[in-house]
Amino acid sequence: MTTRECVSNRIIELCRQRNLTINGLASLSAVPPTTLKNIINGVSQNPGIVTLKKLCDGLDITLIEFFDTDAFRTLEQEIR
């Protein structure tokens, strides 16, 4: 799994846990819905940390909580 896929999966997981739609998260986090959909659908290959922080704020979690998962801990190096 790539980092981009991990980020997308984590956003989807957190939305499901909170019973939020993508548009609902976009509204809570002041991130345009198209930006969020581009991250989830893989159009945006490298979402910025400021955008991820806004999403975390909308989810009421820290960046550390966002990345504190087994999926992120076991990511393989993408540059060889």
Model description:
The protein is mostly helical and 80 residues long. The protein is 65% helix and 0% strand. The protein is globular, with a radius of gyration of 12 Å. The protein starts with a helix and ends in a 7-residue tail after the last helix. The mean pLDDT is 95.
Strand content: under 5%
Q: Over the alpha carbons, how many angstroms does the gyration radius reach?
A: 12 Å
Which oligomeric form is depicted? single chain
Distance between the termini: 15 Å
Uncertain segments are: none
Structural class estimated from helices and strands: mainly alpha
Most strands sheet: none
H-E order: HHHHHH
Indicate the percent of residues in helices. 55-70%
Number of helices: 6
Averaged pLDDT, please?
95
Assign an overall shape: globular
- Number of E-type strands: 0
How would the blueprint of this fold be written?
Elements: H1 3-17, H2 22-29, H3 33-41, H4 49-59, H5 63-67, H6 70-73
Q: In a few lines, what is going on in this structure?
A:
65% of the residues lie in helices and 0% in strands. The protein is an all-alpha fold.
Provide tags for this entry:
about 80 residues, 6 helices
